[in-house]
């Protein structure tokens, strides 16, 4: 009897046996055919750092959302959450690939093998202090209502940034933003519909939605405070100063909460952007232990 190929072998063989960790087997270079030349007057290190900020937010939030798989309140919502996470993972891949294309790899490349793509090395072989994600996306999920509030806030903030990044002087960032705007619009609207349903529902759903808003609002103290990198790149026409999105984001969030019959929590005093500077609580290290564990244990493996 001849050898019967398994489905996994078939997938691997179909792409020449060149498996990748982060995004499956045999995917093409995510920046293939895109002009990756760094714009004149822009420090490649700054551009890479900025891409890490945006990419890490997407990667970490995607991982948080996948924790709801098999635990969401409805089967249809489980699929929706998974799709949102996949959108964010796609954004993370493009942004981390862009960071790698300008040389931002550091210790992650030393820990990985040369055959691992740059975006995989950045996703799986950096330590927590090398991540540039915010506390908003790294915080534990809480209950479903708190997850919905977090998704509403995170997608509203990210959509405001991406809508402006479509005019970036960096052609890669502009292309990523143009693709991401439609995705993020869906993420924001999906979360808003759920929050309206929860806030204006039963006494218990209202209580949980309000508790979720109160918990998430405490994480907003550094969202609109730019780093030096963001300031320099904004002046160069490449990045978006988060301070410039503050009024738009607040207007959207206040409108949704008020329609959901929820009290808008007080806005916290602004604080330095700790997460953007690699300063994180233990929750991020714990999350990365799950995300990165298998790849670090078998760095040369393919699937």
User: Could you name the CATH class?
Assistant: Mainly Alpha
Q: Which second-level CATH architecture applies?
A: Up-down Bundle
The gross shape turns out to be globular
Structural class: mainly alpha
Overall mean pLDDT: 89
If you consult CATH, what is the topology?
Answer: Ferritin
Order of helices and strands: HHHHHHHHHHHH
CATH homologous superfamily caption: Ferritin, core subunit, four-helix bundle
Pfam family, one: PaaA_PaaC
Protein name: Ring-1,2-phenylacetyl-CoA epoxidase subunit PaaC
Organism: Blastococcus mobilis
GO biological process, one term: phenylacetate catabolic process
Please render the helix and strand layout as text.
Layout: H1 7-14, H2 44-66, H3 75-101, H4 107-111, H5 118-124, H6 135-138, H7 144-165, H8 171-199, H9 203-217, H10 228-235, H11 246-259, H12 282-297
Structural write-up:
There is one protein chain. By secondary structure, this protein is an all-alpha fold. It has a single domain, classed as Ferritin, core subunit, four-helix bundle (Ferritin). Helix content is 59%, strand content 0%. The protein contains 12 helices and no strands. Helix 7 runs antiparallel to helix 11. The longest helix has 29 residues. It is globular. It comes from Blastococcus mobilis. InterPro entries: Aromatic_CoA_ox/epox, Ferritin-like, Ferritin-like_SF, PaaA_PaaC, PaaC. This is Ring-1,2-phenylacetyl-CoA epoxidase subunit PaaC.
